[in-house]
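pinging the channel bc i need a second pair of eyes. not urgent but kinda urgent?? the chain im working w is below, pasted from the shared doc
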Amino acid sequence: MLKSCLDAVAHGGNPQDRAASLRHKSEQWWYFLDYPQVPPDNNRAERSLRLAVTKRKVAGGSRSWNGFERSATILTCDSVKSC
């Protein structure tokens, strides 16, 4: 069944290349079943970035290189809590 689903991939690029890539990485899809400490999704990582992205957007931190650097420094200090 998985093979037939992979064979049906046809969005963007060469479908055969995409299906081959998915097939090659298929063992990684189920890694969390063998290792319960590995979450089945990346929600935690996305949640940890959400506040930083919102702060940067509201502050306009990406409009200039200086703004980008300042935002990156502040957000890094916020996440590491060491500055």
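so The chain has six helices and no strands. and Residues 2-34 form one domain. — does that match what u expected or am i reading it wrong
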